[in-house]
Task: structure prediction
Amino acid sequence: MIIFQNVTKIYNIDDHETVAVEDINLHIHQKEFVSMVGKSGAGKSTLIKLLTGEEKPTKGKVSFGSYNVNKLKPNELPFLRRKMGVIFQDFRLLANKNAYENVAFALEVAGRTQQEIMEFVPQALEMVGLKDKMRNFPRELSGGEKQRVAIARAMINHPDVIIADEPTGNLDPVNTWEILKLLLKINELGTTVILTTHNKEIVNSINKRVISIEDGRVIRDEEEGKYILV
Amino acid sequence: MLTTLSRVIKYGLVGFWRNGWLSTATIAIVFLVLVGLGGLLMFNSLANIVLTDIQDKIDVSVYFKVDAPEDRMLEVQRSLESLPEVKSVEYISRDKALEEFKEQHKDDSTVSQALEAIDSNPLAASLNIKARELRDYEAIAGYLEKDTYKEITDKISYTQNIGVIDRLKKIKGTVEQGGLLLVVFISLIAALIIFNTIRLAIYSNRDELAVMRLVGASNFFIRGPYMVEGIIYGITGSIMSIIVVTIAVFYTAPYASIFVPDINGWTYYLSNFFSFMFAQVFFGVGLGVLSSYIAVRKYLKL
Result:
């Protein structure tokens, strides 16, 4: 359902060419749980930006379901993004909105009615175990709780895929496991999950597909793989 | 769609409110532009009324000798009517002139007694000529001074007001040009200020905008609130300007009547209030939306 076909991305900064990813060929199926591993700067984030349409490939084709991502016009991108839930290392919650409002925001911008918002937001927050902290602002939440709010927000539009870009990078081991369990649960319920990380332990313990990236290339792609540092 | 629209308006209002001082300053400059524009519009229409009023009173009259035959006089009328510069020619016969004279002086017993004493009509027939353009009066007067007409015409009079009108027109032209220049100038400053306000708003909302893009907000949803802010600047500025101009006209209208007794500035203003209001709101909102749009296009990545 997600296909990278001979994808190359070259950044041109001050007339200096930097190859971020080169000749990537990937096929990610529906309901798969994929870990993308590699050192910082290996090209993981670039692949995610190419998938969300933030960046356009220099060469090759990225497709997501029926969308040809790199051919989308700016006014079509929002519809693609409503089918993807993205979570980040730095949570990206709005500081002046409480947990409920942060999640509701994703429904508001998608044009959902107030009634739907009042129905779905508590459900999503309950799923991530934060029903009793709905009215708390991000500054009143721990790192793990913030990331759970972000997951609730990512899930609220019922996306086809959850893209988690280093979601546990800022978390202690206990919270890391909480978040990972949540992602596995989401995957079991039928949503594709793409997880980028450099946490060796979690990758090795879940026995799912692992794609290793180094210097912008896929060097290993294994079902039930391990995080092997070269 | 309606939900989205109401949310876009809500976000616009919230942004406007959050920007407090910046919004106030922006409205102040829009207000200034609109007061300038309003003053210019008022000046222009009043000056036009005054000018047409004075112009209407201008004509050339040619008085014929008392014994001039009527068919010769009508011949002069016809030849005048064939001139392209001439708008209208009115023939006033000796009898009609007498009638009008009597009518004008009916309360004055000495005049009517004097007329009775003469026992004949002392008045001359005349032609009243109006030209299409002010500058044509001289040419028409010159045409009447031709030798062929000399034997039947007595005198040609044309009002000396033309100099005054020329001066009035010059003043009007200068004031309008200067005013327009001023309005254009402050409009540019206003546009820059609105532009900058929106730019700052976009900058301070960058986190919110990043999240909006992340969760798939449509372009309309992302850009709309800033356009709404622009509209609010325009509307608020124009409402304030309309109030101030209305008060100003109310208090200055009596003074304007001193110069031109026929015109009541206040009633004129009221009768044109809606077109004036429309011009103000249209210009204010146009200015706000246009500058916001440019800022959004330039600084708001989708």
